Amino acid sequence: MMRYDPVKRSLGYFFNKTPFMRKLFYGLLDLLLLRAWHLRKEFRTLKKAGVNLHTVFDAGSGFGQYVWRIARLFPNANIKGVDIKDEQVEECNTFFSKVGLSHRVSFEVADLTRYVVSNGYDLILSVDVMEHIEEDEKVIKNFFLSLRKGGVVIISTPSDKGGSDAHDHEGEGATGFIDEHVRDGYNIDDIRDKLKQAGFLKVYARYTYGKPGKLSWKMTMKIPVIMLNKSKLFFIFLPFYYLIVFPIAALLNYFDVIIAHKEGTGLLIKAIK
After folding, report:
1. Rounded to the nearest 5 degrees, what angle is found at the Cα of 223, between the Cα atoms of 257 and 168?
2. Is the CB of residue 158 less than 8 Å from the CB of residue 167?
């Protein structure tokens, strides 16, 4: 069983030394993470449609990389990011203050099962969060209540087609590659139903991480995390490893974004209030 959190803490410590290093980190995440490729497509679609975002909520903001992208893509948007980890919230507030965006970007510690800002947001973003929350229906309802009429929620989460890599583990009670998950992925119809039951009028769901994306994920995420869980000395070799695999992974990511997958290990859901 592999753990992401210790690796994330090490990466955050290394790249949080200067604003330049933090921006570099965001750029690397944008290039390497397939979910970021799919989200960029959704953000561009909103931009091309002329959507004018005034208020945005990143529910589970982590390192703040999606807040960074939205802040630049929608320069008039006020953005709130929340997370359960104090150190990540503090680091994000420090970075966005240093780059002069604290007047419209802020972060705080919050529990999504309790966080509601009635009719507060035009867009809610939830990236790799729902699979960590037992009371997911309560959170989805809070999203609905926190959106303005016509507002959009975008959710990226693993599917039940092996989204937590549970298919690689055999035997009774086998769980996924990522032990921080409380479920091994969502059924596409089940999560649609949960959003509709919460009150959303239109729900669109599609698979991500099809065959090309699944291979890319193994190359860019699974193998490095396995190595780093064995020894942090592998940090020394990571740049050389990514120099070799990135051109292949980037091509795989591109195909994953443009292909309509019959099934995949990820889900991208967009729901409109």
Report:
1. 85
2. no
Question: Cα angle at 124 between 266 and 105, to 5 degrees?
Answer: 120
167 found inside a domain: yes
d(CA 14, CA 55): 31
Non-local CB neighbours of 25 within 8 Å, separated by 6+ positions: 11, 15, 63, 65
Domain that includes residue 116, residue range:
5-208+266-272
Positive or negative, the CA dihedral 131, 133, 135, 139 is negative
Residue 1: pLDDT band by 50, 70, 90 thresholds? very low
Among 203, 181, 217, smallest CA distance to 268 is for 203
State residue 219's pLDDT score.
93
Let me know if residue 248 belongs to a domain.
no
CA 83, CA 19: separation in Å to the nearest integer?
Answer: 20
Q: Look at residue 182 and tell me if it is in a domain.
A: yes
Q: 10 Å Cβ neighbour count for 158?
A: 26
Strand 147-158 versus strand 202-208 pairing type: unpaired
Cβ neighbours, 10 Å, residue 262: 8
Please tell me the total count of domains within the chain. 1
183: domain CATH number?
3.40.50.150
Regarding beta strands 121-127 and 147-158, do their DSSP bridges make them parallel or antiparallel, or are they unpaired? parallel
SS3 258: helix
User: Are 145 and 114 in contact, with CB atoms under 8 Å apart?
Assistant: no
**pLDDT at residue 110 greater than cutoff 70:** yes
Question: Does a structural domain hold residue 135?
Answer: yes
- The amino acid sitting at 189 is D
Beta strands per DSSP E along 4-99: 55-59, 78-83
Nearest CA to 269 out of 195, 212, 206 is that of 206
Structure confidence at residue 13 (pLDDT) = 72
